[in-house]
Amino acid sequence: MDEEQFSVLFAAQFPDVWRFARRRTGSGSDADDIAAETFAVAWRRRDDIPATDARLWLFGIARFVLANHARQGQRRDRLHLRLVSTDPPPSAYEQPAPAQEELWPALAALDGDDRELLLLRAWDGLGIAEIATLLGIDRATVSSRLHKARLRLDRQLRKHRGSAPALGERRRYA
């Protein structure tokens, strides 16, 4: 792949890669770093970029970059804990939109695998086959896990709302 082809790929895929990273990081600047590193790796490996599914290939690279970023963050946090005195600096958090106030706690209550599947499907717009390729598992496994993850998310949403069980679901009594 030459520089011009890579520029076209970059222009077409950068917004999706940035959004993919943003949903998995704490800030827009972290997403900037992840997206930049993803495309730096892609540039170094431009001869390996598949003619089809380049977006999926970039998402795979972004997952590895995110994992490295998380490990670096953990190391930085451990160092910070050693350096900070009894008065840590205040943290600023983005306020969620009202419609998301129920969703975020419900997603946070799920395990990481469920959350990742739901994010890949709903926000990244990946199909079952694409998710299977990205995660290296069978399509049937993705479908099954995604179905179960949706059920668990629904239970968490109802739990946060205090709603009754969905139609056809039994209420469990202790």
Automatic annotation (TrEMBL):
Highest taxon in the source lineage: Bacteria
InterPro entries: RNA_pol_sigma-70-like (IPR039425), RNA_pol_sigma-70_dom (IPR014284), RNA_pol_sigma70_r2 (IPR007627), RNA_pol_sigma70_r4_t2 (IPR013249), RNA_pol_sigma_r2 (IPR013325), RNA_pol_sigma_r3/r4-like (IPR013324), WH-like_DNA-bd_sf (IPR036388)
Keywords assigned by UniProt, alphabetized: DNA-binding, Sigma factor, Transcription, Transcription regulation
Pfam families, alphabetized: Sigma70_r2, Sigma70_r4_2
Transmembrane segments: none
One annotated GO biological process: DNA-templated transcription initiation
Coiled coil: none
UniProt GO molecular function: DNA binding; sigma factor activity
Domain RNA polymerase sigma-70 region: from-to ranges: 14-76
Domain RNA polymerase sigma factor 70 region 4 type: 102-153
Cross-referenced NCBIfam families: sigma70-ECF
Family in the record: Belongs to the sigma-70 factor family. ECF subfamily.
The name this protein goes by in its record: RNA polymerase sigma-70 factor (ECF subfamily)
